[in-house]
Amino acid sequence: MPPHRLKRRLHVAALAVTLIGAAQHIGAQPYPAHWWTPVPEGNKPDWEILPQTAKHGEVILSKRNELGILSNFAATPFTLYGKRYASIEGFWQMMLYPEGASDPRANFPGITWAHTRKAVSQMTAFDAKNAGELGEQNMKRMGIDWVTFRGKRMKYWSTVKGEHYRLIVEAMRAKLEQNPQVQAILLSTGSLILRPDHYQEQNPPAEWEYFKIWMDLRSELQGAR
Q1: Which residues, including other chains, have CB under 8 Å from residue 30's CB and lie 6 or more apart?
Q2: How many CB atoms lie within 10 A of CB 94?
Q3: pLDDT at residue 39 is higher than 50
Q4: DSSP notation for the chain
Q5: Is 78 within 8 Å of 113 (Cβ atoms)?
Q6: Mean pLDDT of 152-180
Q7: Contacts (Cβ under 8 Å, ≥6 apart) of 178
Q8: Is it the case that residue 18 has pLDDT exceeding 80?
Q9: pLDDT at residue 9, as a whole number
């Protein structure tokens, strides 16, 4: 074999070894090894599930790497019904807040609102989550179990896939379609089982399990391609 061909083959072989070493293979699909890189347990927040806890064939949607773009917290703006939202979390928590002066939540005796609905819709991450916790506290004080969108009430916590579930899926689909990077990263997860990076309550409503919704949307994308 001519020396230049041998050299080229050796280079290709070395490159292949490097790529295999830098990625985890499950089936025929290579994935970035850093998705599973162990993170020290010390000083991690109580809510977090670390990347190394994933089982074979699974990956944690960790906010410590690019998979965090699939989190509801991520700053991934999208437009739905003509209005722009800064994140899924902001969209979600916004629905806890009064829609206007005629909304009974706005005039409930003894209730004050730390934010406006519009302000919450433009929040991301923990800002939106904290605003939502304040909204939930008000819901408990008012004795209501519903939120609103475009003037329509819907049950907030349901064991069936109701209006709130369908609306969250619609918002996540808008995020996917309007953010090319979200599409690319979701498709890059191939056939992996997606897992949350935070602990969840027992038997939560289906819309709380965002990782399952992403797998459904991923299947739609893969089918379309």
Answers
A1: 19, 20, 23, 24
A2: 28
A3: yes
A4: --HHHHHHHHHHHHHHHHHHHHEEEETTEEEEGGGG----STT--TTB--GGGPPTTEEE--TTSGGGGGSTTS---EEETTEEES-HHHHHHHTTS--STTSGGGG-TT---SS-HHHHHT--HHHHHHHHHHHHHHHHHHT--EEEETTEEEESS-SS--HHHHHHHHHHHHHHHH-HHHHHHHHHTTTPEEE-SB---SS--GGG-HHHHHHHHHHHHHHH-
A5: no
A6: 96
A7: 77, 78, 79
A8: no
A9: 43
Cα–Cα distance for residue pair 48/220, rounded to 1 Å: 29
**What integer pLDDT is reported at residue 103 of this predicted model?**
95
Token pair 């939540």: residue: 105
Predicted model pTM? 0.86
CA distance 141 to 30: 51
Q: Measure the CA–CA gap between 66 and 156, rounded to whole angstroms.
A: 30
Q: Is the pLDDT of residue 162 over 70?
A: yes
Q: What does the alpha-carbon distance between residue 189 and residue 217 come to, in Å, rounded to a whole number?
A: 12
